[in-house]
Amino acid sequence: MGGQPMFILNEDSERTQGKDAQSSNITAGKAVSESVRTTLGPRGMDKMLVSDSGDVVITNDGATILDEMDIEHPAAQMISEVAETQETEVGDGTTTAAVLAGELLSQAEDLLDDDVHPTTIVEGYYAALSMAHEAIDEIKLDEELDDDLLETVARSSMTGKGTGDVSAERLAETVVDAVRRVDGDSGVVRDNITVYTQTGSSSSATRLVDGVLVDEEPVHDNMPTSFEDPQIAFVNDDIEVQEASIDAEYNVSSVDDLNTAIEAEENELRGYAEHVLDLGVDVLFVDGDVADQVAAILAKNGVAAFEVGDDEGEELAHATGLSRAAGVKELEADDIGSAGSISVEKFGDDYVTFVEDGAAGQSVTVFARGGTEHVTDELERVLGDALDVVTAALDKGGVVPGAGATEIAVADHIRSEAASVEGRKQLAVEAFADAVDVLPRTLAENTGMDPIDALVDLRAEYESEGIAGIISEGQTGVIDDPVELGVLDPVAVKDEAVESAAEAATMIVRIDDVISAS
Question: Where is this region: Disordered (predicted)?
Fold first, then answer.
């Protein structure tokens, strides 16, 4: 080779290796975790996020904060993905997962400084993760998941979040009612619950609608806006004059030819309208455009037509039992659904169509109100989280004590089992337990307590009573029994939080080479 250098990477590429790469990644991950840490708990603070275009989001929801942040560092993005995964899987606990992931990285950094190999850290973390799942399963409450308990779970998820002037108790009742209505033999069909927001009224006007809401008005001004026991149809195509499937040119040489062509189009459109009328349809939803002539005929005969999208079609099918026809000519009597009522209401400049008491009865909507868009946006997030945690409690394993009580039990269990782990891996197991302590410690700090004293008191109370959590009281917090005070979380939220946090942390710890192209 004659001593000639061999260039494998582009000369403009940047490469960071060894401890520098590990340090850079861990620092980035910890920074993202710290950005949401102050939002944890009932007295957590909000973040104001302002986009380049000036859009403002005010929230303390971890997933929303991390999603709105402009994160560039790849390791930091992994922590953001932790919150995204948590949100997707169970709908709550996003801040918990992100904070835990950051602390696992912090503990791993100390172990790396002590020359513990990354592979040993990963093995220890996964051993501790298994112990964490065991502890969560042991502390699970052996109680029936009745409505009262589910309302407690819903209220716990709302604690410290913005609900406007409506109480968490009332929203919790609405949430549980919604979940119960879509709870069948195969479990809760979460997709059949929609949260629809509308500004212009106080949050206390929020209510549950047994059906679906469509943000459209009839396509013709003379169409009726209220129906009782209507027959409903849905067409998945435009209702207009059909175009030829091939390029063709027509020669119109006289007025008679023109009139004949116009008459043919009119007859085609009239035929569509008459077909709908012959089927006895009262309300027609169309995923496409409705020709003016068709709309006029339908309006004259007391039929309302709405131009909507495919998503609304799916919701309407679940609610009313209709089948979506490929086109108006394919629409048959068997495709028609029904509802108890349909009404169009105006809110400011917006029209909303309520389709209630559908024959299929498989869809419900939480109609959330708020005085401003910021209020309704946050209320939508709060309700979404509450619906998710109640669903998770019913479908994925029950509930555990909240307020940091589960984390104290998990850390204690891991420490007690760590002695059975041989070699340096034991150090990683103990580090995992120390990392879990960050959650009750952060809860105490955000509540106004001294975090170190609170952690010591929590451990002592847990040793003597078997359960201990941090309960917000006035301007500070107290150590008490979260179960008695109604602070509960789904098992699935805790299991997913430790799982996703551990996976992200171990993935980052194993990276010792970062290559980036210019």
Answer: 9-30
Farthest CA pair distance, the chain? 100
Residue at 221: amino acid letter: D
Residue 403: DSSP 8-state: T
303, 341: one domain: yes
Q: What would you report as the CA-atom Rg of the chain, rounded to the nearest whole angstrom?
A: 29
In terms of residues, how long is the chain? Answer: 518
Which CATH number characterizes residue 283's domain? 3.50.7.10
Q: Other CB atoms closer than 10 Å to residue 402's CB: what's the count?
A: 29
- Which tokens sit at 42? 């009932």
Query: Both 404 and 375 in a single domain?
Result: no
| pLDDT tens per residue across span 104-161 | 998 988 898 888 888 999 999 999 999 999 999 999 988 888 888 898 888 888 876 7
Tell me 446's DSSP state. Answer: H
Question: In three state form, how does the secondary structure of 257-292 look?
Answer: HHHHHHHHHHHHHHHHHHHHHHCCCCEEEECCCECH
Q: What residues are annotated to the active site?
A: 61, 94-95, 385
Whether 65 contacts 79, CB under 8 Å: no
Token duo for residue 286: 């169309």
Measured in degrees and rounded to the nearest 5, phi and psi for residue 138 equal -70, -35
- Which residue, chain included where needed, has tokens 């119109």? 252
Domain termination site, one of 389, 419, 436: 389
Query: What pLDDT does residue 26 have?
Result: 79
pTM: 0.76
Which of 506, 489, 400 has the alpha carbon at shortest distance from 93? 489
DSSP state of 437: T
* pLDDT for the residue numbered 164: 67
Residues 381 and 427 in one domain: no
Q: Give the range of the structural domain holding residue 321, as residue numbers without chain letter.
A: 209-389
- CA 315 vs CA 211, 361, 404, 427, 467: distances in Å: 9, 11, 39, 53, 44
410, 132 Cβ separation under 8 angstroms: yes
Rounded to the nearest angstrom, the gap between the alpha carbon of residue 403 and the centroid of all alpha carbons in its chain is: 22
Would you say residue 65 lies in a domain?
A: yes
Amino acid letter, residue 336: I
Query: 416 and 374, same structural domain?
Result: no
CB-CB contact of 80 with 71 (8 Å): yes
Section 455-465 average pLDDT: 89
Looking at the fold, whether 358 and 384 belong to one and the same domain comes out as yes
* C-alpha–C-alpha distance, residues 29 and 4, integer Å: 40
Residue 440 lies in a domain: yes
Assigned domain for 163 exists: no
Each residue of 277-297: pLDDT tens digit?
A: 999 999 999 999 999 999 999
Considering 389, 418, 450, which residue would you say is the last residue of a domain? 389
The total number of structural domains that make up the chain: 2
Report yes or no on 409 lying in a domain.
Answer: yes
How many degrees, rounded to 5, is the angle at CA 50 between CA 46 and CA 54?
Answer: 145
Whole-number Cα distances in Å, 508 to 56, 125, 212, 501: 32, 13, 44, 11
Average pLDDT in the chain: 84
- Answer whether 60's CB lies under 8 Å from 46's CB: yes
